[in-house]
Amino acid sequence: MTAPRRIVVMGVTACGKTSLAQALAGRLGLPFLEADRLHPPENIAAMSRGVPLDDAMRAPWLDAVATKMRQLDQDRGGVVVACSALKRRYRDRLRADGPVFFLHLAIGIAEVRRRLALREGHFMNPVLADSQFAALEPLGPQEAGGTLDATMAPEALRAAALARLG
To answer: What are the boundaries of the signal sequence (predicted)?
Structure first.
């Protein structure tokens, strides 16, 4: 089996999306895309103030992520993305141009709160953790992807992700 060309590591804040996506991109020889860097300034300002993003605020951001994914896939033969992709309709937007394999990093709220307390230099206000869990829709049976335990040791998590990718 050939590994998917467009991979999104998804989940709530502080679940480890960026670390895993960067590791996978390096291992697979694909470019890495940090979706948070594509948020417009007004979204970052809202999240910094502890205001959850609504669907209307997320729409242009998701479109920008999908566009950049398409460009990297065409130019470099694939991409690994770190993106929350919390709802099915958000994931539908990301796969509008073609298949995407989602790796959902599952984690509990207590562990997220612990990680957020240790995090420095990120715009995500820790008060938003609850809203992220409220919005989260796990992968459905028709969605290409798999769920992984985000509390695994980094090496074990990478190995499990690579096994899921084939």
So the answer is: none
Taking only the tens place, the pLDDT of each residue in 12-49 is 999 999 999 999 999 999 999 999 999 999 998 988 88
CATH class of 6-165: alpha beta
Report the Cα 37 to chain-centroid distance in Å: 12
Closest CA to 129 of 82, 80, 86, 88: 86
pLDDT of 2 reads 61
Q: What is the pLDDT of residues 93-102, one digit of tens each?
A: 999 999 999 9
pTM of the model: 0.93
Per-residue CA distances from 17 to 39, 74, 108 (Å): 16, 23, 14
124: which residues sit within 8 A by CB, 6+ positions away? 13, 14, 47, 116
From CA 11, how far away is CA 29, in angstroms rounded? 23
Closest by CA to 73, choosing from 104, 101, 51, is: 101
Q: What is the DSSP string of 112-135?
A: HHHHHHH--S----GGGHHHHHHH
